[in-house]
Specification:
- The protein starts with a helix and ends in a 17-residue tail after the last strand.
- It is globular, with a radius of gyration of 27 Å.
- By secondary structure, it is α/β, with parallel strands linked by helices.
- Strands 1-4-7-10-13 form a five-stranded parallel β-sheet. Strands 3-6-9-12-14 form a five-stranded parallel β-sheet. Strands 2-5-8-11 form a four-stranded parallel β-sheet, with no helix packed on it.
- The longest helix has 30 residues.
- The protein has eleven helices and 14 strands.
- The chain folds into two domains: 154 residues, serine acetyltransferase, domain 1 (Orthogonal Bundle); 101 residues, 3 Solenoid (UDP N-Acetylglucosamine Acyltransferase, domain 1), CATH 2.160.10.10.
Length: 323
Amino acid sequence: MSANDIHIQEHCDHEIESAGGLHDKLPPVVETLVAAWQTEDCFDHVGPVPIPSHTSIIDIIYQVRQILFPGYFTKTKLHGSNLEYYLGKETTELYERLSKEIIMAIRHDCRRSNLPCTRCEARGHRMALSFIESLPDISAMLSTDIRATLSGDPATASPDEVIFCYPGLLATSIYRMAHELFRLKVPIIPRIMTEHAHTLTGIDIHPGATIGPGFFIDHGTGVVIGETTIIGSNVRLYQGVTLGALSLPKDAGILLQNIKRHPTIEDDVIIYANTTILGGETTIGTRSVIGGNIWLTESVPSDTRVILKRPELLYSGRKGGTS
């Protein structure tokens, strides 16, 4: 090996490339970004305005699930003698964490909108307490959802499987806790919760929707339930169902706030896969069955079966052979 070869090996390609980096080209890009964020055309959150922690809110979701389903999602083995201690510890910690995030959410709205003092500290503590006081009712509601799943899905006979594995119950669980916070008028936190469920399951339920007991989403991927949807008791949805709004005007975000835009689904209705039901005046009557791949923008009376006429299937291929 020659001396020249040794010299080349001592200076590998990586060292040569690193020495020729283009770091000096980055400051102009940063300057452009900073200038853009100082205009009204871009959105940022730079400054002293507090904002809730996305990570903390997701942690709160899972702490609530540990309380609602004791023993399922905990490392600690629970039994009768330590259950009260465990729940007391968890609810106290939840109260403190949730109060903090709610206070920041209220304060964020106040400062962003230049509102007068709304006593965010006291309101945040009251809202957190009201949410914790609602946990027994949420637990009872989820019990009806689990029973509806067991009675409606022959693929499982175990509540453990439903609680651990079913995306429909996961999305419904997070929706039910988010809906309570939405009802209490907690800013932004309910949406963070339900969008987390959407990310995990593909099921998009707005926290403002009203959903009765015994709710069952089978499979679930692609289900969309809008803010002003009203769903009665013992309703079953399959994957790809959309309960949405009709075509909206350009400035709908302002004009149609607090106006019912999504359908009403009455008790004991079944809606099969990939069906779309739209409109605030659209009502699906009690005990009706809506088949798959249906598009509805008008109401359906009670005890009605709506199915799509069987399409004509066309087969093509070589005569006398396989296609």
